[in-house]
Design goal:
single chain, Rossmann fold, 4-stranded parallel sheet, 7 helices, 6 strands, about 40% helix, about 10% strand, globular
């Protein structure tokens, strides 16, 4: 497990009933990513499944009022970070003739919405990169999948709105969004298919969501 926050990794490792190796790394730092993968201890080097889950949205303004620093954070994390980690891990999968790369996209990669142009563009890039990798490794035995969730209630909106929890809560008000567990179970189902089966893409929505911008707000059960 890799992430920026050691305390979160340690806490999660303690909850899992299996052996866990953790690494504190920021996917925006390509040199750190390469060093982390190259320095994996024995027993952890032959990676079977890579889940590229690091990502964020920053800011929620029209493009002409947006903060270029927010744009760069999103591009560096959502696009360049995914590329760096995949570049470090994928050669080993190809050499071994097996493996599975799962990229976390978004419904925003299919449909742009107001005040989200750059975020939507980064997730559209994830979709096209996933397709390109799949074509690059065709015949190698490596599978490449894309999962595109809709509304998932995590820290996503809190980060996007700079810690404004009331504004973040309003995103999910009146509906039952997906949970992180829903997404994790979908990842598990995708990677657990028989070797001859590739689930190329999954669009995962809450029942109360139809598109990137259309939701039914009727109160949570």
């Amino acid at each position: 497990m890799c992430g920026r926050r050691t305390d979160r990794l340690t806490e999660l490792a303690g909850e899992l009933r299996t052996d866990v190796h953790t690494a504190t790394v920021d996917v925006r730092d390509r040199a750190a990513v390469e060093a982390m993968v190259a320095g994996l201890p024995d027993g952890w080097r032959d990676i079977d499944v890579l889940v590229n889950n690091a990502g964020l949205a920053a800011g929620h303004e029209p493009l002409h009022e947006g903060d270029p620093d927010d744009w760069q954070r999103m591009i560096d994390t959502n696009v360049t970070g995914l590329l760096s980690v995949t570049r470090a891990v994928l050669p080993g999968m190809v050499a071994r003739g097996r493996g599975h790369v799962v990229n976390m996209g978004s419904i925003a990669g299919r449909q742009a919405y107001p005040n989200g142009a750059v975020y939507c563009a980064t997730k559209a890039a994830v979709a096209r990169i996933t397709e390109g990798i799949r074509r690059d490794v065709l015949g190698s035995g490596v599978r490449v999948s894309l999962i595109e969730p809709g509304l998932v209630e995590t820290e996503f909106s809190v980060v996007r709105f700079g810690g404004d929890r009331d504004r973040a809560d309003a995103v999910y008000a009146g509906l039952t969004p997906l949970t992180a567990t829903d997404v994790a179970e979908t990842v598990l189902w995708v990677v657990d298919r028989p070797p001859h089966v590739l689930v190329a893409e999954v669009l995962l929505l809450a029942t109360d969501q139809a598109t990137a911008t259309e939701v039914a707000r009727r109160g949570r059960p």
